[in-house]
Amino acid sequence: MKGLLIKDLKLIKKQNRILAITALLCAWFFITDRDASAISAYIAAMVSIIAVGTVNYDEFDNGMGFLFTFPISRRSYVLEKYVFGILLMAVVCIAGSALVFAQAMLKHKPYDAATGFTALLVPVITMSLILSVSLPIQLKYGAENSRAVLLLVGVCAAVIIYGAQQMAKVFAIDFSGVKERIVQASITEVAVCICVLSVAMLGISYWISVMIMKGKQF
Fold first, then answer.
1. Are 91 and 27 in contact (CB under 8 A)?
2. 54, 67 in Cβ contact below 8 A?
3. Which residues contact 81 (CB under 8 A, 6 or more apart)?
4. Which of 37, 60, 91, 174 has the most beta carbons within 10 angstroms of its beta carbon?
5. What does the pLDDT look like over 32-46, one tens digit per residue?
6. In terms of C-beta distances under 8 Å and separation of at least 24 residues, what long-range contacts does 21-30 make, across chains too?
7. pTM above 0.70, yes or no
8. In three state form, how does the secondary structure of the chain look?
9. Cα(53)–Cα(134) distance, rounded to whole angstroms?
10. pLDDT per residue over 51-90, tens digit each?
11. Model confidence over 87-128: pLDDT tens digits?
């Protein structure tokens, strides 16, 4: 797995243009005093896309078939992608917390621990969601078809959410109590829920990805 991690890290280093654009946008958000959580979410989304994109490089020019001539199992290949994503998630979390602290120091404002903690949690749920959905689709459909599938998934999710809202109105279902409970939840409760949800999403996604890889032929 160490070799696969090094390979993906070198692949990311080659994407200098995307990394530079991300850094410039983050600097602009920082200078304009935007919410650090929004900056963390943006960084998390961009890094997740880059991480998932390593699968494209592996598949390019029958690279996947060549890759499995080495002593690498399909399960270990999938596991490495999730471990790589989690490692990047940790880096983004640290960066988000550092941004909150830097904003407080440079703007001469008191450091808000709750904001710093939020900057930790936002990348966790953002990257967990993107990795959980995108990696199985990427492994199943490849670089070209996966974009259309992801778009379809997004449209279906929006339709389901809208349909649920309309059904709640028709049947007069009141979710105000649930919303109030969420708003009143402590930061610890929110953190535990996000961690549990992220682990569940990544675990289910990993299992699906392993099944997909076992069924592929190269």
1. no
2. no
3. 8, 51, 54, 55, 135, 209
4. 37
5. 666 666 777 778 888
6. 22/46, 22/47, 26/99, 30/99, 30/102, 30/103
7. yes
8. CHHHHHHHHHHHHCCHHHHHHHHHHHHHHHHCCCCHHHHHHHHHHHHHHHHHHHHHHHHHHHHHHHHCCCCCCHHHHHHHHHHHHHHHHHHHHHHHHHHHHHHHHHCCCCCCHHHHHHHHHHHHHHHHHHHHHHHHHHHHHHHHHHHHHHHHHHHHHHHHHHHHHHHHHHCCCCCHHHHHHHHHCCHHHHHHHHHHHHHHHHHHHHHHHHHHHHCCCC
9. 10
10. 888 888 888 777 787 787 888 888 999 999 999 999 988 8
11. 988 888 887 777 777 777 776 667 666 666 777 788 888 889
Whole-number CA gyration radius for the chain: 20
Contact 100, 112 (CB under 8 A): yes
Q: Which two tokens stand for residue 15?
A: 């994407």
- Let me know: does 86 contact 79? Beta carbons within 8 Å: no
What the block records as the tokens of 69 is 């001539």
Q: Position 59: which residue type?
A: E
195 CB-near residues (< 8 Å, 6+ apart):
124
Amino acid at 161: I
**Tokens read off for 157:** 């999710």
Question: CB 54: neighbour CB atoms within 10 A?
Answer: 22
78: tokens are: 């999938």
